[in-house]
What does this fold into?
Amino acid sequence: MSLWTRIFGGGASRSPEPRAAIQQAGGGVVITTPQELEEALRTGNVTASGATVTPNTAMRVAAVYACVRVRCGVVANMPLHIKRRLDDRTREDATDHPAWTLLRRKPNRWQTPAQFKRMMQAHLILRGNAYAMIVRSRGLPLEMIPLNPDRVECKQNDDLSLVYTYTRKDGRRIELKQSEVFHLVGLTLDGVHGVSAITYARETIGLSLAQEGHGATVFKNGARVSNVLTHPGKLGKEGLEFLRASLDDYRAGGESEGKALILEEGMSVSPLAMTAEDAQWIESRKFSRTDIAMFLGVPPHMIGDTEKNTSWGTGIESQTQGFITFSAEDDLTIWEETINRDLIGDEANVYARFNRAALVRGDIKARWEAYVKALQWGVYSPDEVRALEDMNPREDGEGGQYYDPPNTAGGDKPEKDDGDEPSQAA
It folds into this structure.
């Protein structure tokens, strides 16, 4: 029985192409212990604001979607190379390695490399873990099948090895060995399982969802606050229904927008609730958006919030550089080290590397100015600079020399002739 059949079922009559409905889009949380059941019954994903926050509902918040899109786009679009070290200073593309084919051409039978990386990075951000089943033949990886993180359970054995249990759509539980799973781990507290930012930002995201619901309700009702109507006498059932219908039609906007409300029989109206401005509804939404950007590690200006400075820097360029240094670099390192561990293994001369120059091309002037200064002062040789840019040494063999520093800071002084006397001023 093949690994594919063992995991996803099917027999000899199975179609050679994978089915798109292997997993439900919504996934679900598998409860395996009494403690998990108690937590689900007591709190679950319901926040203090009353909104239910899951990775899927969180994506309905514009700030969350924008942050996830930005961070996933960096990993998905940046070129990923599989390199082979020929010697200490020479590299070449390992195009004959199976990992190169998986990550540069075809990770599986229905996804492109960018689609696969974007999906896995989204799982990593929203759930703290991303899993893909590695289909091997004679020890070589042939395919990577992404698995819904909500259906995967990871445990560490007494011998410190990891074992994964995948719950199929029909409820069957399949056990996978560590060598059969490509496992990306984000911020972790136990060294095995990644923690999700959604878990700790649940109240902030729930507040944002509640604010959106409140705003939608306000504008649905014509953006008018609730009122109390006072009648000097007593309305009958028929009069009450007629008044309610008239008010609903008036509050619905449309042709009634801007017109005066006419009350009969001495009725008076007074506001019952404070307005959205009094509650500083718009300001609270801005505050919530900034908090979400902080949780997900994205400068506010990258999701459209350019109204104030942040600790990322004093300008747009500084904030972008801060994102590259503190967020994007973290994601790239996770991918590179996981590829080296799960797909390349013990091949010491083969490694994965993102071409970071593709991300920082906007700052290429500053980078090359630093290289020029390092060359002038003899800190780097041309070949060392080329190695930093992931390039091979110069073919003429002249790239290993170091240039002499310019005489700008106290070079050798000309020797003084003792026989010469300084001239006296007349």
Q: What stands out?
A: The longest strand covers residues 129-137. The two ends are 109 Å apart (CA to CA). Confidence is low (pLDDT under 50) at residues 12-27.
